[in-house]
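Lab notebook, bench 4. The sequencing result for the construct came back, and we need a structural model before the next group meeting so we can plan mutations. Quick request posted to the team channel:

Model the 3D structure of this chain.
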Amino acid sequence: MFGYALVLLAVFATTLIATPILSKFAPRLGAIAFPSARSVHDKPMPLIGGIAMILGLTAGLLVAMSIGQFDEMFRGSTEPLALILSAGIIVFVGFVDDIREVSPPAKVAGQVLAGSVMSLLGLSMLYFRVPFASFDYIVLSPDLAPILTVITVVVLANAINLIDGLNGLAAGICAIAGSALFLYSDRLFKAGLLEGNNLGPLIAIITVGMALGFLPFNFIKPMSFMGDSGALLLGLMLAATTVSVGGRVADQFSGQTYFFFAPLFIPLVILGVPLADTLFSFGRRVVRRKSFSVADKDHMHH
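Done. Here's the predicted structure in token form:
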């Protein structure tokens, strides 16, 4: 546990220190959220969370690499590379969208690319659990595994992005979901069901560090927003944990199917409101025959 505590501290400290420093450069980069009719904030806010968080992720991986406890995860494995490359891609896509709007298809294409890179370099789902079925899981064929891995990334990235409307909500939920996934994967590890080279618990603890490191700027007195770059990155991290923990353990473990879906249900339950809101907004536009590019004033937003 000591190793994980050090990694958590490194990620938390890096994100915490990097956010205010990067916020000073945000205006030069054009990464600013200006107040609008649809927003609650009344002064321009830096959209720099994603960059601070990926610096935290990098620091966490570097610290983990230097601790003997994690040797097995890094030795001869391309999974850490899969994580950092896919994170880099999704932060880039989100950041470009923060600076100047990217069309939704281009954004999804970026997320698919991030998920594909993650899967190609070994962070891929091997099993898919089926709730309430007589058989517990499906062993995924090599052509299905990447598809389901990519879908997990796209769904969770967009889910977290949707709930990023309320201050501190996305970071708070990711901290809770990451902690739950970490404790669960640690239980699996102790039960001998998770191999020592499984990156899942490490990804989970890094996610918690990133979310907690950013939370003070987002929650108490909003000083910075995570923007799409941060929300998409947190979604990708939760997806990577879900894939490596839930999608790797074939053994039956009490409550395991529930746990496999728990991280997916946590955002969905909380997402009920924005998802319903998005659907209603969609419905209103169809009824009024309004273009989708026109802001919808009835739609709640930060």
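Confidence is low (pLDDT under 50) at residues 131-135, 294-302.
Will bring this to the meeting.
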